[in-house]
């Protein structure tokens, strides 16, 4: 149930989060140019209505359609969203867009699946364009007559419910659910999936909304971190708190304080009571923000405050921080805590679960270093990240002459004779089920990870202690098929401008499709793979590829290389080389091996990441 709620919440927030910049632009226009704004301007204030009623819902509907149906889903999602907008002209249809966008994406995705392989040659463009147009028209009509009016009723009910809570002084009790939900990684889902649509409706009438202040207030987390800084008995925790305070309060990354709660769950009482007091204060003073504060930093929180409420807004943050500090301090002083490192691991595990992947405890079978004969690198599909990781680690331990086989496979197909399974954190549960006899080595990425370094150090110590016997053994190489994957000059793009991760992955998939390596559905499988487990490998390299279920959509093995000199954000890392892979069997392993070899040469790697030299990339990988 928890995983289902987390996945649903993540999907809701995924429709809104990429468009937060548009919300902020609308918020600035509201704060600056309406008649009670900082710089009242009747003409510029006219931008407010069209952005609120048309731009924001269409962006959300487009993103919802893209999440389900790819680029075609984005187009049909926008068309369908117009239906609900016009069908309920008196209400901002953000929630209507959240329904229509994914529905439209689902419709076109099912149509594409039904038509895959059945289109007459030469009629592809005609069918593709008319299908989006016809289905989009029908969904827009459905939105106009049914979904738009229905969502208007839902908005009236929700708005009325909030007004009842405010009038009876019950809104502060929402903090009892908000603060624990943050630690379960439902913060974005609650803030942008629920509070933002209701806040938009309130702000459209009153110019501001308290709903924007419920989750984003940085005060509760600030008070908690200050209490740890002053009263924690653990030196590592005490020393880490100041940095966490800066990141949380000014950067708006609330996740930074979740491990501090997981160290001692009772301490969550501090943020809960702090937020209750702040919400009560804001209710009493009729405070509100003009737009969503995203991320939840003090800077964003104050920027979205009306000019007449700046002091009130700041006081609410101070009240939340002060109460949170006073409540958290005695709990931290009296209670023992586990280490911050263990709490961080627990947070990583819970965050993985919020993405829909259950994670088992980081334990494995008792396998001694001396008994290790086979090491398996495992990823979801068994053809991309694990293949590169296995190649690099095989080369790394080869001089040790331990006679250990190092190969790769899908996490669901680990062989029974595997002694060690190396996989990413969020695949631990599947790895444990697939190979209960094996020891698990979990890591963040396959190329650079301290856990992998520690495991190598164990093997190195074994080699140093048994030199004569080790020299007689030979590391086994994986079997290769006679064919090889294709890397064509047409499959290399250099000097590309930075884009978001999804766009970069989709570009790689579209290029694989254009060159005849895969069909269109493989692109969606690449995005699904990224949602499950990151394909960032380390050292500025990402290798997006499809899920194991999408192997039947691969026509022939091929690789494409997209170079982004300024990088593409893959979580907290930047990838300069996005290498799209489609593999039949192990035909792509040869190119992956050459990629790994290039990573050993730092000067060459820098050239590959920065210089627009197609011939150099072709010579290195081809």
Question: Can you offer a commentary on this structure?
Answer:
This protein has 622 residues and is an alpha/beta fold. Helices cover 58% and strands 8% of the residues. It has helices at 2-16, 20-33, 42-45, 48-87, 94-115, 124-167, 175-183, 187-206, 219-231, 235-251, 258-263, 269-284, 298-303, 310-334, 340-354, 385-397, 428-434, 450-465, 467-471, 501-514, 521-532, 589-600, 602-610, 614-621; strands at residues 374-379, 405-410, 420-424, 439-443, 492-493, 536-538, 541-542, 558-570, 573-582. A hairpin with a 2-residue loop joins strand 8 (558-570) and strand 9 (573-582). Mean pLDDT is 81; it is low at 354-365 and 466-482.
Distance between the termini: 48 Å
Task: State mean pLDDT (0 to 100 scale).
Answer: 81
What proportion strand? 5-15%
Shape, per Cα inertia axes: globular
Largest sheet: 5 strands, mixed
Radius of gyration from the CA trace? 27 Å
Kindly state the number of beta strands: 9
Unreliable segments (pLDDT under 50, ≥5 consecutive)? Answer: 354-365, 466-482
Instruction: Give the helix tally.
Output: 24
Write the layout of secondary structure elements.
Blueprint: H1 2-16, H2 20-33, H3 42-45, H4 48-87, H5 94-115, H6 124-167, H7 175-183, H8 187-206, H9 219-231, H10 235-251, H11 258-263, H12 269-284, H13 298-303, H14 310-334, H15 340-354, E1 374-379, H16 385-397, E2 405-410, E3 420-424, H17 428-434, E4 439-443, H18 450-465, H19 467-471, E5 492-493, H20 501-514, H21 521-532, E6 536-538, E7 541-542, E8 558-570, E9 573-582, H22 589-600, H23 602-610, H24 614-621
Parallel strand pairs: 1-2, 1-3, 3-4, 5-8, 7-9
Antiparallel strand pairs: 6-7, 8-9
Helix pairs in contact: 1-4, 1-8, 2-4, 4-5, 4-6, 5-6, 7-12, 9-10, 9-12, 9-14, 12-14, 16-22, 20-21
